[in-house]
Design brief:
15% strand; globular; 4 strands; NADH Oxidase; binds flavin mononucleotide; 191 residues; 4-stranded antiparallel beta sheet; alpha+beta
């Protein structure tokens, strides 16, 4: 599958088959992530791959975190739904920015600029992994609902740096239609 085909056929997948994914296949997906461009080639990404019983535990931790979040802020959006999807996926990659600070910490302007650059780089790595997975016949879901259990998950994963997202992986058990996109004319100026 060439890159344009992978871009075209990729969808967010929210229903996965039970089948596990070979560790070598996950390694190939991670490898694609590391080939992304990054500001000053800092490669500001770290991954934690969670599978099997450990994934069930992580989802439990996430659910506890969502409860705390709900008690503090009321609305947890789609977090519980995303936790359910993570639970039925065979593997989840948690993605961190090792130089990034937690969202509630104060930042200097310099730190904010660095963070903007580094988070773009991590986004490029995530998209590389998604397209690599697509070309290998594996569906993905990019998940930021992990933020509703940010502190709990970082603690459980033993990561004291910025969590950027989670990526659920699995063999697809659905074939959703393409979601609508804004037209080029709506979002582009030519000058
Ligand atoms: C940064 C980011 C965060 C996302 N977080 C979630 C999430 O937490 N839960 C979820 O179900 N989908 C999440 N998505 C998937 C989007 O809902 C999806 O990409 C969008 O609706 C377009 O659909 P498509 O990916 O099938 O083209 C996220 C996507 C991105 C890029």
């Amino acid at each position: 599958m060439d890159v344009m085909q992978a871009i075209d056929s990729r969808r967010s997948i929210r229903r996965f088959k039970n089948d596990p994914i070979d560790r070598e296949v996950i390694r190939a997906i991670l490898e694609a992530g590391t080939k992304a461009p990054s500001g000053k080639n800092r490669q500001p990404w770290e991954f934690v791959v969670v599978t099997g019983d450990k994934l069930k535990e992580a989802v439990q931790v996430m659910r506890e975190g969502i409860k705390v979040f709900k008690a503090r802020f009321g609305n947890t959006g789609s977090a519980e739904y995303s936790a359910n999807i993570m639970e039925q996926s065979p593997a989840v990659i948690f993605i961190f920015n090792p130089g990034g600070v937690h969202p509630w910490k104060r930042k200097t302007v310099g730190q904010q600029f660095t963070e903007i650059v580094d988070v773009q780089s991590v986004g490029a790595a995530i998209q590389n992994m998604i397209l690599a997975a697509e070309s290998l016949g594996i569906g993905t879901l990019w998940i930021c609902d992990v933020f509703q259990a940010y502190e709990e998950l970082c603690k459980w994963l033993k990561k004291d740096c910025q969590m950027v997202a989670a990526l659920a992986l699995g063999y697809k058990d659905e074939n959703p239609p393409a979601r609508p996109r804004k037209s080029i004319d709506e979002i582009t100026e030519w000058i």
